[in-house]
Amino acid sequence: MDANRERLAESDPAVYEALVGEEDRQREGIELIPSENYTWPEVLAALGSVFTNKYAEGYPGRRYYGGNTYTDRIERLARDRAKEVFRCEHANVQPLSGSPMNQAVYMAFLSPGDTILGMDLSHGGHLTHGAPVSHMGRIFDFVRYKTHPDEEGRIDFDELMDVARKTRPKIVLCGYTSYPRDYDYADFKRVADEVGALTLADVSHVGGLIAAGAMRNPFDDGFDVVTTTTHKSLRGPRGGLVLCRKPFAKKLDASVFPGLQGGPHMNQVAATAITLGKALEPEFREYGQQVLRNAKALAKGLLDRGFALITGGTDNHMMVANTVETLGIDGRVAEEALDAIGITTNKQVIPDDPNPPLRPSGIRIGTPAATTRGMGEGEMDRLADLMAQGLAARDDAGTVAGLRGEVATLCRAFPVPGLA
Ligand SMILES: Cc1ncc(COP(=O)(O)O)c(C=O)c1O
Predict the structure, then answer these.
(1) For the segment 143-163, what is each residue's pLDDT rounded down to a tens digit?
(2) How far is CA 167 from the centre of its chain?
(3) Of 63, 232, 235, 394, which is the active-site residue?
């Protein structure tokens, strides 16, 4: 055991035991929540480093505190790498996570009451895209577009253009947390240009896939601002990036700090620099492609076993299964049944869900984390089979215990990076 862990074990056994429990849970089970991943050992090292001790309010070369020689160095590195990875003109690497990252963008360009055109939340939009329970939903006026789940999730851009003409949004927002398809960003750009709105893509879910060149990059279609979390498919520490074209840089930086945040978490910025360095390596391109291949294989495995998938499949790393239609159980029951065999998914609303968010009609499933462990298409089919069996036998304790053992055996063959 390393010295720091040994100290923790002695000084605070309650926290230490929870940490070991979580390590075992991650080692013996498989993470299929599409927004989660297993980060790099190097990232874990940076997160647990002395950079956490340092205040660095401001930006490199313009700090409010002394002693920032090395924090300046890593923040510059992270910004430069972000620009290279996402082919953009400016990057802010300080957002503490995805929610403040989006809030900083809205606050940079809008006044309270201004209109944002975003995706309906039950069709895939995120809480920060204006859920009524979020502060953003109370401050700004969100208007919505929907998808056509029966037509492979197609977005009707004529309808979207109509809404835009009627409501004159200041921002046209695309991005999703539970939409299993890709976008044509040029269509959104066309609508935004028509009404003089800014284009914002929140690519949190597919940030790693865009970095890997496996999915479309909104900047290629002239988008103004792109945000992404760093801890999902990008495989880094928890955090957010705001990326933009040069003319928006000053406003966005001022909105992140001092507008919204105080001192950045420099251990996280160091970990972000490492993550972006990894994203520039050729292996990461292969990782992105494998995430997509695995998603297709898992979707096929589930469809073959009778699962009803929203939009009928996937073009990205995720799927949403309608568990009410498939098995007559809500998403919470399905999530708990899968948890019991060591497969982690999350309950999920489906388009125009008649059920409430804590008892929604589906679950969300994704492949970034399993791919990080080295699993391939064969393992995806095996997981689909284990899921089908686990859900069918959810009330049979003996079968559940047996399946849990099978999941653990599979997982032991694919170690979690950084966990011996
Ligand atoms: C599309 C999207 N944007 C923003 C966020 C918010 O990120 P965080 O949970 O780090 O605040 C999420 C998180 O799930 C997301 O899916």
Answers:
(1) 999 999 889 999 989 999 999
(2) 29
(3) 232
